[in-house]
Amino acid sequence: MARLLFVTGTSPDVRRGSGTFVGISVLAEALRQAGHTVTTLAPEARGGPISLAQRLAFNVRARRAAREAPGMDAVVGFDMDGVFLAGGNARRVVAVKGGLAEEARFERGAARLRLTIEARLEARNVRKADRVIATSAYSKGRIVEDYGAAEERVTVVPEPIDLLRWQRALEGNADTPEEGTILCVAHLYPRKDVSTLLDAVARLPPSARLSVVGTGPERRRLERRARGLGLEDRAAFLGHVPFERLLSEYRRASVFCLESLSRGDRPLTVRTSLARRGSRSSAGDDGQAPSSGARAATPAGRGLPA
Fold first, then answer.
1. Of 187, 183, 228, whose CA–CA distance to 209 is shortest?
2. Nearby residues of 216 by Cβ (< 8 Å), 6 or more positions away
3. What is the CATH number of domain 163-294?
4. For residue 34, what pLDDT band results from cuts at 50, 70 and 90?
5. Smallest Cα–Cα separation from 102: which of 128, 140, 158?
6. Would you say residue 297 has pLDDT above 50?
7. Among 32, 44, 170, 189, whose CB has the most other CB atoms within 10 angstroms?
8. Do domains 3-156 and 163-294 have the same CATH topology?
9. Averaged pLDDT for residues 12-26
């Protein structure tokens, strides 16, 4: 069985780490259940988002920590993380969770600048890797084009989800679908384009209701947009909610919709919505979120200081 070292600078907190750390955790647990040994280097959980300086500092410390974990068969860096690791006998694998260069195209201001810097480090990480993992055929194409990776070194492995766990949890919930209830679960970044979803809801009959689960830098602007469209009583921004409340929202929704400008987004939330039998959801034909040009809405880690 393999001994694997995971390196991720994403916050080990869904509120601040988005779905990325969820996907990494599910993958690590699945590998452990298959008999492999997985050690995770990640920032210590703490309040507030992780800044670029903190993420760079984490990667410097990860270089030293990786030397103290010898005998690994492979080191798996996620996105730009692991970029400073020294060469060794272990195979170098980089798992790109969406593509920072792709994400930067849809941001603005300081967020775009940060993503552009991180994308350059991600490109360096990709070029040093023995193997690169993409979450879809589309993402593979972006990695090849944006980072100059050789196509034969990039393998597509869809984002994992603990489907059985979600099915059991959703089916055990007492809530029933409410006609006209639309659910969106996302971190509120500009590329998620929730404003387009608000525009769509404003054109639906008054009985249509929207619940948005998640937080992020766009929340206040989106709340103002909702008020401007007269959706005060029809659009609810719930923020980050506990797991039981999230289950309830999924169960009550008659339609799940994830709008996105970027096809590189990894729709863990879409797959979760499909875990409920008979659900109606939106997704691209390659497992990615649909882009704005093709919208569709159908009925135990080891901590390092950040």
1. 183
2. 186, 187, 188, 189, 192
3. 3.40.50.2000
4. very high
5. 140
6. no
7. 189
8. yes
9. 71
pLDDT tens, residue by residue, 4-15? 999 999 877 665
Are 3 and 36 in contact by the 8 Å Cβ rule? The answer is yes
- Domain range annotation of the chain: 3-156, 163-294
Superfamily the domain 3-156 falls into: Glycogen Phosphorylase B; (3.40.50.2000)
Which residue is it, tokens 């929730």? 194
Phi/psi for 177 (5° steps) reads -60, 140
pTM confidence score: 0.79
E-strand stretches of the chain: 3-7, 37-43, 74-78, 91-95, 131-134, 154-156, 178-185, 209-213, 235-239, 253-256, 302-304
Q: How many Å separate Cα 255 from the centre of its chain?
A: 21
CA distance 85 to 260: 33
Residue pair 269/289 in contact by the 8 Å Cβ criterion: no
The β-bridge partners of 40 are 6
User: Strand, helix or coil at 277?
Assistant: coil
pLDDT of res. 290: 43
Taking the C-alpha atoms of residue 69 and residue 85, their distance in angstroms, rounded to an integer, is: 12
Residue 286 pLDDT more than 90? no
